[in-house]
Structure formats: structure tokens, C-alpha cells
Specification:
elongated, about 50% helix, about 120 residues
Length: about 120
């Protein structure tokens, strides 16, 4: 890594740490001019920039914006459940079904239900 690449990465870290913590810096203008004269952005290792930015913020105690706080528990609107129960597909056939279909349906349910099939 040459000097120009190191300079861009270091200044990018500075810009990112400042921007994420509400600090106005002149890094943006400096970076734009430096890249234009010395190198291209393709040589920038974004992983290293993000990693170094995180380390700088951790060392300075500026990581509060990266922590996740679990929201407080929501109060239930009512005792009634909004979720519809899933119909039991292995229960007996509806009354409107012909007798031969009821027998076939019961046999199918018994053959596909693991608890009846394996004696659970």
C-alpha cells in the first residue's frame, strides 16, 4: 500500500467518525481533492475503513449510536387474540362429506399423521 492509499484510508476514517458523531469536518473537501490528484477510490479498502472507524469510536467511547436497546414491552390492546387458529387438518371430516370420502379422509389422516403412524 503506497502513501496515497494510506492517506485516503486515514482521512476516510476521520471523515466517517466525524460524520457519524455530528462533527463537521473538512475531510470531505480534502478527500475529493486528494483523490482527484493522487489516486482513485477503487484502491480504497472499505472494510478496513469501517473497521478502523469502529475502533476509533470504541476507544473514544463514541459507540452509543451503534448499540441496540430493546424497545419496552408493548401493552396488549385487549385480551382477545388477533391470531386466527390454524384448522386441524387431521381431525374428522366435515359432516357434508359422503361416507366413502370420510373413510378415505380418515385413512389419509392416519397414514400422514406421524403420531398415529409411529404409535406416539
Amino acid at each position: 500500500m503506497n502513501h496515497a492509499q494510506r492517506e485516503i484510508e486515514a482521512e476516510s476514517v476521520s471523515y466517517l467518525v466525524c460524520a457519524r458523531n455530528g462533527i463537521t469536518s473538512k475531510s470531505e473537501t480534502y478527500l475529493a481533492n486528494y483523490v482527484e490528484k493522487n489516486t482513485t477510490v477503487e484502491h480504497l479498502d472499505l472494510y478496513q475503513v469501517m473497521r478502523a472507524s469502529g475502533q476509533v469510536e470504541a476507544l473514544l467511547g463514541l459507540t452509543a449510536h451503534t448499540k441496540y436497546d430493546k424497545p419496552p414491552a408493548l401493552k396488549p390492546a385487549s385480551k382477545k387474540s388477533r391470531v386466527e387458529p390454524i384448522p386441524d387438518l387431521f381431525s374428522s371430516a366435515p359432516a357434508s362429506m359422503p361416507a366413502e370420502n370420510k373413510a378415505a379422509d380418515t385413512q389419509f389422516a392416519n397414514n400422514t399423521n406421524p403420531s398415529s403412524r409411529f404409535g406416539f
